[in-house]
From TrEMBL:
This is Cupin-like domain-containing protein. It comes from the Bacteria. The lineage of its organism: Bacteria, Pseudomonadati, Pseudomonadota, Betaproteobacteria, Burkholderiales. SUPFAM superfamilies: Clavaminate synthase-like. Residues 77-270 form the JmjC domain.
Amino acid sequence: MGCERSLQWRGDGSQPLPDEILTSTTPLLLRGLVADWPLVRAARQSPLAADAYLRRFHRDASVLATSAAPETGGRIFYNEDLSDFNFSTQMVRFDQVLDALRAHLDQPRPPTLYVGSTTVDTCLPGMRAENDLNFGERDPLTSIWIGNRTCVPAHYDLPDNLACVAAGRRRFTLFPPEQLRNLYIGPLDFTPAGQSVSLVDPRRPDLARFPRYAEALAHAQSAVLEPGDALFIPSMWWHQVEGLEPFNILINYWWRQSPAFMDTPFNTLLQALLTMRDLPPAQRAAWQEIFRHYVFDSDGGEAAHIPPPARGMLAPLDAAGARALRAQVLNRLNR
């Protein structure tokens, strides 16, 4: 299973990444995209060199650190009956995380140590001046992920994602959005890190319990990224991520292709569960047609017969219209 497309694109850091990459609807493997970053060069020397490089920028910032017993094998997940998680979290200084990772570098079965999705500018001010990419007019959220051998189950993110491996190696396994049914997704409202995850252990899949996962694997794309490599993950693609070394660093960029005033569609899903899922089948089918007409097949023509001043919420959405529509939704919810 290889990533579907692999591009070779090497700018000098001043050139914006091309739209061919940033608007792709399929994953793109970008070997060596950030190979010239000083952090990557340090990591290629040794984990201790990468550790020392990070410490140059640390300014007493605290981060949310995840830890788990060696028995978890690094899998960030639930307990057996999904009543709790198999890990704990606490706020600690970033350099304490580095100390712990360094202390466990040579242990064959260390405890799991993991810091996910921490804003680089908050945690390591000044580092992006030496290790960054040019996104042109886009202003992505830039985060660091650091830990030892870990396994984050398959999940999706709403933003587009450019993930850059700076130290260690990471295996990404991606599934297209239409594989949702075959991934056996867990609870929507009780999640390990904010997003619902697949309940299948990707390293030891139980196909007797999760037989449709075999179909998901048939459509999967997988790649192991070395320091300096990057992977573009389109919005809504399911992806599981494994840290393969005792010391791993990932820098990722998130951005949306929609205006900032748009809410997350997940809010609509919650409302649909509340208002539509348990309707009689005929009524549910009728609402499916309404959503198809006004949302999923919308081309603007559904309101063409209404005079423009009278189109109301059917008019093209802008920031002012979004505020008015949000006020109507909140008013209805508060009745």
